[in-house]
Design brief:
This protein has a seven-stranded mixed β-sheet, sandwiched between helices. With 222 residues, it is α/β, with parallel strands linked by helices. The longest helix is centred in the N-terminal third of the chain and has 15 residues. It has eight helices and seven strands, in the order αααβαβαβαβαβαββ. The model has no long low-confidence stretch (mean pLDDT 97). It binds S-adenosyl-L-homocysteine (SAH), 3,4-dihydroxybenzoic acid and magnesium ion (MG). Magnesium ion binds next to loops. Magnesium ion (MG) binds next to loops.
């Protein structure tokens, strides 16, 4: 299969079903001008996250890995009335750009950013009694995805959904001999899911403008 077709289909789908409005376009431009890496979710993936959060009727969303706030905007728009999104970002310069992008999208009042490595900002969040979160998107440093999943699970309610990005990694997910810590972590995430009676999950492989990768989706038991 020709990877250029993956991009063409992403563009076709995005044009009809996940078009950018001014704020999303400006977020990408602001991120580009700020020199951020172009690793945000694709438009169809952003729309998928938004649909999932809407299915959840989400009033509380937690995001690991803000970057320039592109996925944050898709998710923030899914919040139901009075809802709130907390997004965690380790890089203060990325966070500054994200803050501007999020404000431009009119989401400044409903999105709260916590700046610092997530493992350092999570304890404060816990002590404040944050959550339970209706929807969690895990998309920060992949080596810690299992830790973030464990935290999210403890701060979920029956019916919550947890989604993790970049789990398939060009198919290396299936390589038990991989020495890549990101691959090992995503395999550990799958083992945790398999062993955890409180969740039911699956992983869907994706191709598109971002290459060959995939999402893990987990539903916390009722
Ligand atoms: N969710 C974004 C993309 C996130 S890219 C989108 O789709 O638009 C991953 C982000 O995680 C980067 O911005 C990176 O700085 C951040 N990150 C890396 N390590 C982190 C950590 N320990 N805690 C929080 N964020 C981290
Ligand atoms: C990277 C991070 C992501 O979240 C992603 O979707 C793609 C690439 C990266 O760190 O390279
Ligand atoms: Mg990602």
């Amino acid at each position: 299969m020709d990877p250029s077709a993956w991009t063409a289909v992403d563009e076709y789908v995005a044009g009809l079903l996940a078009p950018h409005d001014e704020a999303l376009q400006a977020a990408l431009m602001g991120s580009d001008e700020g020199g951020l890496p172009k690793i945000q979710v694709s438009p169809p993936q952003g729309k998928l996250l938004q649909l999932l959060a809407k299915i959840q009727g989400a009033r509380t969303i937690l995001e690991f890995g803000t970057l320039g706030g592109y996925s944050t905007i898709w998710l923030g728009r899914a919040l139901s009335e009075g809802g709130k999104l907390i997004t965690l970002e380790s890089d203060p310069q990325y966070a500054e750009i994200a803050r501007a992008n999020i404000a431009r999208a009119g989401l400044g009042d409903v999105v709260e950013m916590r700046v610092g490595p997530a493992l350092e900002t999570l304890p404060k969040l816990a002590s404040e009694g944050a959550g339970p979160f209706d929807f969690t998107f895990i998309d920060a440093d992949k080596a810690h995805s299992p830790d973030y999943f464990a935290w999210a699970l403890e701060h979920s309610r029956p019916g919550s959904m947890i989604v993790a990005d970049n789990v398939v990694r060009d198919g290396t997910l299936a390589d038990s001999s991989s020495e890549d810590p990101k691959v090992q972590a995503q395999r550990r995430l799958h083992e945790m899911l398999a062993a955890e009676p409180r969740v039911s999950g699956t992983t869907i492989q994706t191709v598109g403008g971002k290459g060959y990768d995939g999402f893990t989706l987990a539903l916390v038991s009722k």
